[in-house]
Amino acid sequence: MNILVLNGPNLNLLGQREPGIYGARTYKDLCAMIEEKAKQLGIAVEVRQTNHEGVLVDWIQQALGTFDAIVINPAAYTHTSVAILDAAKAVTLPMVEVHISDVSKREDFRQVSYIRAACQKTIAGHGFEGYLEAMEYLASNSIDN
Ligand code: DQA
What we know:
Layout: E1 2-7, H1 19-22, H2 27-41, E2 44-49, H3 53-63, E3 69-73, H4 82-91, E4 95-99, E5 121-124, H5 129-140
Parallel strand pairs: 1-2, 1-3, 3-4, 4-5
The structure holds 1,3,4-trihydroxy-5-OXO-cyclohexanecarboxylic acid.
């Protein structure tokens, strides 16, 4: 099994970005945790981050045929992007939405998630561990693993 982990804008600044909300660990720490988890699960993983909406759309489209499932934290685009939702619906790969913070307890504008409609599951407020839970879920629900 080959999982693509996609991260949206400002997640490259983890560690320095609002540590009271997102914690002190860095994006590099997150990548290392995800890679370690993939080893434990015996699966392949690729982790990417971009600040650009269209790049996320491109990566989702290109995932078809290469990856079996997607873990996605679209960050702020969660709350705004119909384009990312449409790409996710188009490729129909199993997908899990992850948020580091508990978006349900934050501002009103964070209560809407466009991507959720294309995801099998949403994990929010579990910190970096949420990504690992998403990987476990996808690995245990895959037919070829
Ligand atoms: C986030 C929550 C979003 O509302 C925010 O815009 C982010 C990160 C999270 O992981 O908690 O950038 O997706």
